[in-house]
Amino acid sequence: QVQLVESGGGLVQPGGSLRLSCTASGFILDYYAIGWFRQAPGKEREGVSYISSSDNTYYPDSVKGRFTISRDNAKNTVYLQMNSLEPEDTAVYYCAIAARPGIVVDPHHYDYWGQGTQVTVSS
């Protein structure tokens, strides 16, 4: 059974950091492109970090320099390190996988999604 489980969300003050984890079961993450997305109440889903199966990465301007995506193939886990967090980063964060080469930006091209983890940035 294919499953993605996110963890690491929580409440953090502005300027703080969090590291999200996305652990896969039922398949090997090495072969997949992975994306981290977020969705805030009343807003559309937004991609925040992407990594290809060959470990190329891409970040939109909104998080560039603050977020870092990485993977640990031995643990079948992908991470999202988030630094200098802002209240605007508050959202539910999801990881997703796509059986496609390269960086996959379109969320419709993703095959499996996790259940999400809440990140709240507030003082």
Describe the structure.
There is one protein chain. This protein is mostly beta strands. It contains no helices and 11 strands. The strands form 2 sheets. Strands 2, 4, 5, 6, 9, 10 and 11 form a 7-stranded mixed beta sheet that branches. A 4-stranded antiparallel beta sheet has the order 1-3-8-7, with no helix packed on it. A hairpin with a 4-residue loop joins strand 7 and strand 8 (77-82). It is globular. The model has no long low-confidence stretch (mean pLDDT 96).
Can you describe this structure in just a few lines?
This protein is an all-beta fold and 123 residues long. The chain has strands at 3-7, 10-12, 18-25, 33-39, 46-51, 57-58, 67-72, 77-82, 91-98, 112-113, 117-121.
How many helical elements?
Answer: 0
Which structural class do the helices and strands define? mainly beta
- Radius of gyration in whole Å, from Cα? 13 Å
**C-alpha termini separation:** 40 Å
Overall shape: it is: globular
Uncertain ranges: none
What is the helix/strand order? Answer: EEEEEEEEEEE
Percentage beta strand: over 45%
Overall pLDDT confidence: 96
Q: Work out the number of β strands.
A: 11
Helix content: under 10%
Largest sheet: 7 strands, mixed
List keywords for this structure.
single chain; mainly beta; seven-stranded mixed beta sheet; four-stranded antiparallel beta sheet; 123 residues; globular; 11 strands
